[in-house]
Amino acid sequence: MQSKFFRKRDSNNTDTKSSTTSGTLPESPFRVQVPAQKDLALIRRLPAGGIEDQSERLSSMVDKLSSLTFPFSNSPIITTDNELPEAWNKVFKAIYEGDSEKALDLLDDIPANDFILKPLLVVHSMSYLRRMVNYCVEAKSSGLKKVNSDLIYTPHTFEIVIKDLATSMLCDTNLCFSFGLPTHHAYENKGSGFCILNKTAVLLEHITQSNESPSHFLIIGLDVNRDNGLNKCLMDTASNQSICHIDICDFRVYPEQDCEKINTELGFEGESLRKGITKWEKNALSYFAVDLAEVNRRKVEIHPALIFALKKMVDSIEEAKSQGLKTFIFLPTGWDSHQDETAPCAKLINGETMIASSAEKARFSDSDLEYFNDKLFTYVLENHDSVQGVYWGLEGGYEQKMYENQIELMMSTVSKIFGPDIDDTPQQRRSKRHQH
Question: C-alpha angle with apex 207: 204 to 209, nearest 5 degrees?
């Protein structure tokens, strides 16, 4: 991602003033990344958590996003239809030709300092990338290569995930919302739970390599399924960096890892902070697991797990600021944590589907997520000197009516916060949002 940032609220910024006072709409200060139409066609039959496959699911999301009206002079929507370095295109072409030996040789020939490969090899091993290439070649004969029930490759899967990653890296603003294949379960040497590449971990490393000075990284995961692969990748490759990772999930659903299993996976024990919240710390990395089975709603109020995350966000950024560090925020988000989600991966507990009254306590409502997005992005705007950028990435979310509603609510909130009235005071912006 580039060094550009949100449009400044500087009273001397004549471009901003003229655009908002003359009636001319400003340019969008954020991007919404979606798969190109040809890429959507290439991921048919890849599994997702509901009745739709990944192509149908993401196509529905793209259609919803395309139907929205944004208060900007240009559309914030960008696609993965980008030109990559020719070395990558040669690898993809050899895969489609079914020549695994040639494809692997071409992969080995990509320069070590390639802007995609360099951070990718910090998170994932070359042997794993080579295995992905082989899976795609093997998929040519029947159209699919089934590794397990969750992980299925097409001949184009490797190209799709690399193009998606590169598009985010090349994003020309530092506020990016990305809709693509899920990523947060992937490990260094294997995929897991529909996830093939761990995009958040690779982007974090890309930003680290691109920065002239160190950053602080804040990660807030809202997928109901634990960020197991992301957590392990960061503990193994990035624990020397300043990272605060808040993972709000339900231990009872996939990958069904409680504190004891997390202790085993990480190789050391966590510290219980209070009921349902445990902290694992390694060097400069702090990982907080917030278990929705224990931290849930007791009465009609904003969900306490989100209140914890927002408070920890402020504390983390303020602490980084005191150390002279700017913060980059990652938001790997799964709307499968919404109370209206119907997918088994979000609601199936001990063989039984969670009932509505339990979901109201242990899952998020529209009001919860609206509140969280409003507070988070308002804080980001009002503290933009301390925040280097924000990457929001879609993970789960499979009930169409629910996720289409979440798209509309989130885009509405973000557009109002970063829209034409950006020069309003915080009080004026809040008043206008409440009027809606």
Answer: 110
